[in-house]
Amino acid sequence: MSEDISPAMEGWEYRPDKVTARKIKGRNGKDKIQMRIELGLLQMEAEGKPDGKRPYGKESLLDYHLSRLEQYKTSHGTTRGFELNKSDCEKLYEEAVQYYHRYLSLFSLKDYPGVIRDTDRNLRAHNLVLRYAADERHKTAFTRYIPYIIMMNTKAKALISLEKKDYEKALKQTKLGMERIDDFFQSLDQSELSKESEEIESLRELAQEIRKKKPLTHLEELNIELEEAVRRENFEEAARLRDEIKELQGKN
């Protein structure tokens, strides 16, 4: 059997401006995720650890270290003194990159529940390192990605709500996501970063798109009709619309 992967990429061009991915069935019958990259493709498991490995018999290194933490707490009655060394942090970072590639692929495939699963997982990994890394430099390396992960997690939740035409819930989720990012910057005493955050701006743009798709309420329709009546100087119609608007507002 040829080891040349060219046939797998035939007709599937690399797009530098866009993440392109697809789901396939592996030889074992399980779903795989493939992401097109410039020099070939990345293939990942659709479930569990993207590379298919089970470190120390656990689903992931994160699960292994969380079990270590729980054992330490049971033995010592506290988590004080528990640490992640340089090697632990580096391997957790490498693992987080695998999940990053997968949730980007899943987002392009509109598998939003999968995006939520993997971003939630990476947030847990980042929080573990931020709390227990022995070296502050490793905390810094993880910190810079948290706003992006929150953004992707928020987008996936909002887009699920949008698919269900639950516009109010989608808008609340984007608002909550922006607040979470802002709270994160404030926790670092860097609240000024919120003003220039690309992640917050991206969520703000998503909220604007949701508002455009949201059907108008009867009150909003009446206000538009009122503006049009005033523009046409149809004052009798404008007066009628004002009365109807006041009556409707009174009921609300």
Structure description:
This protein has 252 residues and is mainly alpha-helical. Among the domains are: 146-215; 218-251. It has helices at residues 6-9, 61-76, 86-108, 112-132, 136-143, 146-163, 167-187, 198-213, 218-231, 235-251; strands at 21-25, 31-37, 40-45. Helix 4 packs antiparallel against helix 5 and helix 6 runs parallel beside helix 8 (198-213). The protein starts with 5 loop residues before the first helix and ends with a helix. The model has no long low-confidence stretch (mean pLDDT 93).
Sum up the structure in keywords:
252 residues; mainly alpha; three-stranded antiparallel beta sheet; 10 helices; 3 strands; 7% strand
Query: What is the H/E order?
Result: HEEEHHHHHHHHH
Give the number of helices: 10
What is the straight-line distance between the termini?
71 Å
Task: Give the class from helix and strand content and strand pairing.
Answer: mainly alpha
In short:
The chain has 252 residues and is mainly α.
Write the layout of secondary structure elements.
Blueprint: H1 6-9, E1 21-25, E2 31-37, E3 40-45, H2 61-76, H3 86-108, H4 112-132, H5 136-143, H6 146-163, H7 167-187, H8 198-213, H9 218-231, H10 235-251
Antiparallel strand pairs: 1-2, 2-3
Helix pairs in contact: 3-4, 4-5, 4-6, 6-7, 6-8, 7-8, 9-10
Pfam families: UVR (PF02151)
Keywords: Coiled coil
Protein name: UVR domain-containing protein
